[in-house]
Amino acid sequence: MDSELLSVGIDVGTSTTSVIFSSLLVRNTASGFTVPALSIIDKKIVYRGGIHVTPLLDESHIDAGRVREIVAGEYAKAGITPAEVSTGAVIITGESARKENAAALAASLGEFCGDFVVATAGPDLESIIAAKGAGAQQLSQQRGCTAVNLDVGGGTSNLAAFCCGELCAKGCYDVGGRLVRTDEAGAITYVSERLRPLLEELGFSLPLGAPAGEEGLRALTDRMASLLGEALGLLPVTDRLPPLQTAGSSAFSLKQKIDALSFSGGVADYIYHPAKDWRRYGDIGLLLADSIRQSGWFRCCNVVPPLETIRATVVGAGSYTTTLSGSTIFYSGEGLFPLKNVPVLALDPGTERSCLAGECGALREQACWFLQQSDADNLFFCLRQTQNPSYREVGALAGALAGAAEELPPGQPLLVLTRYDFSKSLGLALWRLLKGQRPVVSIDSVQAGEGDYLDIGKPLMDGMAVPVVCKTLIYG
Amino acid sequence: MEDILEMITRAVMKELENLPPSDAAQVSASPAKGPSQAAPPAQEALRDLSGGALVDLTSDAMVDLTSAAMVDLTSAAHKAVPTLQNPQNPEALAGMKRRTPARIGVGKAGPRLRTDTMLTLRADHAVARDAVFRDVDPALLGELGLFSVQTLCQDRNEHLTRPDLGRRFSPETTNELKAKCRQAPQVQIYLSDGLSSQAVDANARDILPSLLDALRDYGITAGTPFFVRFGRVPAMDAVSEALGAEVTCVLIGERPGLATADSMSAYIAYKATVGMPEARRTVVSNIHKGGIPAVEAGAHIAGLIKTMLERKKSGVELQL
């Protein structure tokens, strides 16, 4: 009775690009005496691709054609056709996400890779995905502790903390191994603008073309490492930290004591296994690894090995981005799926209360405004407060939502997501009210909020549940 | 080296800040004693009763204790507080408690349950007994427009002691059913008290209209709903035979446990007959606020009945 979902993960990072395929096993975990409860019970990586250098046309453009070739090559090597892939995520991470053509690349890769493969980005989401790929969530759940993962890549360091399996803090800072690059002769070829305040503080500069002196670079990476300590809350925060917070990310703020700290990302391998020749990759990644390993805060922490280092993000993208909806849901036709990039309109508590009373005025106004603002032709009405509604309240909610749906362009389906379990009942009530005027999709048990986008895949196992990917999209 | 020292200082300062004032005072006065050892036994017992707040017996605040202690022991809020003292990992314990209504994290007093746990257990047991011995609210039946019939049981005691009588009707009752109900419907839905009248009170208002509306949406005709007092599950077989329904579904109160007395089950069978094997019944259990909400259960059961009518099977024969 199990069902398998083949999932792809593609990570186009600041320095490297990689692809993995994993198999997600879906099973009805409920006993025969209750309502079904589908869940993903196992995730297995079935193919690990190589680590490729991310091809760039210039500093502000990714070479989309060559990225596509790399991905196509990995599909061929794995012996998998895009048609076989039913879910997954393309994630464009770190500095790459700020390249001018990142959005277009994500869209074109998504189309090439399979019917329901989503393009996703945003530094916070990246932190969470990397931490899950590195196994921090699992560890915190198994041991009932607070586990933090620090994914140190080429352009950014992504932090995420889990407490007893629940996400409790996330953040991203522009600290990475390729913010300074050198050529084969050891001359400096690139220094990220983001490092300027640090260099000023340290009192030296790194002119392009000049030979890279180890002493100066070590001073720089030592300071970068101490900034990571500040970000983790292990050192007092200095003025230098806030400006380095990646655009569009949260400030990492953790109240709990860190019980376990893991490192992932390209730099992580060299934190755990010191390298001799720091010039090997023509950047400061290995020096940064040394600085982190030798810093005081590092030695005070319980550092644990991650499940994945350089592939943490891609494994996270392939294995941890897809969730399942609740198993009692409603949709008026299978042809509606997949739904892609639908923005979420999260109802505020006040509006939700007025909807429960059957009033649709406030919601209608918000829907109208939201559609104009987001320039989208549909949205997901997301109800997060209502739990255990009475049947009368379900009817009132349906009335309010059907009223607000008049703001949607003709023919667009009415899409509703509830946090708690009552979407089948609500969906049926909506379908009854709309009398076939427009299709209806009503799903539950997925957490989403303002600013999120949802992708919904084709129904699984006799239509009991649908795969859902919740993401934030921030490019450039 | 410097940042290590700084870190240690910060950690110590933070810990001191986190201690409640009284504990901090005790620590500074007699560092060897832990806060719990410092409390005299009488105060310990009170801490048990009031769910963690330490009360000074000698102070005037004692007067307030009676009102402060009037908490609903069976409430979710009361049970959410772990009474285990000094857990090694309070967050992990809180996380586990959120996942189960079971009595975990309660600690013990020597080999026995602590007072608070014991009282809560007895309060929960009282709720369960009430749920069994009570009758369904007649106003509710009126509101839902349900008429009532009774099995062969004459009173609650007989209902509990004679399950065989709780599954049969007198010839007069059978005739009444035939007279008042639509004959040979596609599906016959009815409610029954079973072993928890409270479950009917808690869920009927939401599950019945949700189920009937959903059946209508699927184009399925339902018979006339009614209520059976002193009913056991197999009474549905007698109902099925009396009315000639293709599918029969009873919404019945489950035997209450110590976690909830509100739980309802739906037993559903295709062409049920008296004496058929139990394996022919399909069941959806755990219908209550903490399980599947009543409105959602109604919608789900409608879908199940639709499948049953299509495949002309129920119970273990119906592979979903």
From TrEMBL, chain A:
Pfam families, per the entry: EutA (PF06277)
PANTHER family listed in its UniProt record: CELL DIVISION PROTEIN FTSA-RELATED, ETHANOLAMINE AMMONIA-LYASE REACTIVASE EUTA
Top-level taxon: Bacteria
Name by which UniProt lists this protein: Ethanolamine utilization protein EutA
InterPro entries listed in its UniProt record: EutA, FtsA/MreB
Automatic annotation (TrEMBL), chain B:
Region entry Disordered, spans: 22-43, 81-109
Cofactor mode of binding and number, as noted: Binds between the large and small subunits.
Binding site for adenosylcob(III)alamin: V233, E254
Keyword Lyase: yes
Main location: other
UniProt EC number: 4.3.1.7
Keywords: Bacterial microcompartment, Cobalamin, Cobalt, Lyase
Subcellular localization: Bacterial microcompartment
Pathways per UniProt: Amine and polyamine degradation; ethanolamine degradation
Any one Gene Ontology molecular-function term assigned to this protein's record: ethanolamine ammonia-lyase activity
Single GO cellular component term: ethanolamine ammonia-lyase complex
Reactions accelerated catalytically: ethanolamine = acetaldehyde + NH4(+)
Family annotation (InterPro entries): EutC, EutC_C, EutC_N
Cofactors (names): adenosylcob(III)alamin
Gene3D superfamilies tied to this protein: Ethanolamine ammonia-lyase light chain (EutC), Ethanolamine ammonia-lyase light chain (EutC), N-terminal domain
Any Pfam family: EutC
One GO term of the biological process aspect: ethanolamine catabolic process
Keyword Signal: no
Matches recorded under HAMAP family: EutC
Function in brief: Catalyzes the deamination of various vicinal amino-alcohols to oxo compounds. Allows this organism to utilize ethanolamine as the sole source of nitrogen and carbon in the presence of external vitamin B12.
Family of this protein: Belongs to the EutC family.
Subunit structure, as described in the record: The basic unit is a heterodimer which dimerizes to form tetramers. The heterotetramers trimerize; 6 large subunits form a core ring with 6 small subunits projecting outwards.
Name this polypeptide is given: Ethanolamine ammonia-lyase small subunit
Record organism: Harryflintia acetispora
Name of encoding gene: eutC
